[in-house]
Amino acid sequence: MAGEKKGLQLLDFWVSPFGQRCRIALDEKALPYEYLEQDLGNKSELLLRSNPVHKKIPVLLHDGRPVCESLIIVQYIDEAFSSSSGKPPLLPSDPYARAQARFWADYVDKKVYDCGTRLWKTKGEPQQQARKEMVEILKTLEGALGDKPYFGGDEFGFVDVAFVPFTAWFLTYERYGEISVDKECPRLAAWAKRCGERESVNKNLSPPEKVYEFIGTLKKKFGIE
């Protein structure tokens, strides 16, 4: 894309946990970037041109060249700026540990958002099934965390970046699914609090109440009451 702006630009939407992953990764690397908020109801020409396949956010533009899909963006940030940022890598250097990190990030992608959506979009038996699944998902992730401070060990890393934006959605999941993360997954709750104390996380996560209000707006829009 000749003539495009140099540097980093992020096409994003404020409440998106997928976009927040990218913002956290950029801040972990102390990389300056331009944030471009998108209207998903009226998608911009830049977004449609930058992600013609999926036509969705987030998209990272690096010197005008687009990188799409949040986990791929996070990995790109980690690799493209591994030496220039002077910050520790998000992915471990050991190939097996890298494979494990990618596995759990992929698990988060496949499970959490979809199940969480069913918690607030459905009622009755489907909602009860989603509640049961969400508890299982969170307990599985808590098992992967174990007694470690972070998923990769002592350092905040790739799986933490992938999963931590969803902690801002825990309040919504709790209210619609009648789940208590503190009671049912105390180690996960402690991890969420630990991550929330990091500047990169604290400044980029949407306040849980705002997420809950946003979902309430969506429910009215879709006629779900």
From TrEMBL:
One of its GO terms (molecular function) is glutathione transferase activity. GO terms for cellular component: cytosol. One of its GO terms (biological process) is glutathione metabolic process. It is found in: Cytoplasm, Cytosol. Its EC number is 2.5.1.18. It comes from the Eukaryota. It is an enzyme of class 2 (transferase). Keywords: Cytoplasm, Transferase. It catalyses: RX + glutathione = an S-substituted glutathione + a halide anion + H(+). Is involved in the conjugation of reduced glutathione to a wide number of exogenous and endogenous hydrophobic electrophiles. Conjugation of reduced glutathione to a wide number of exogenous and endogenous hydrophobic electrophiles. Belongs to the GST superfamily. This is Glutathione S-transferase.
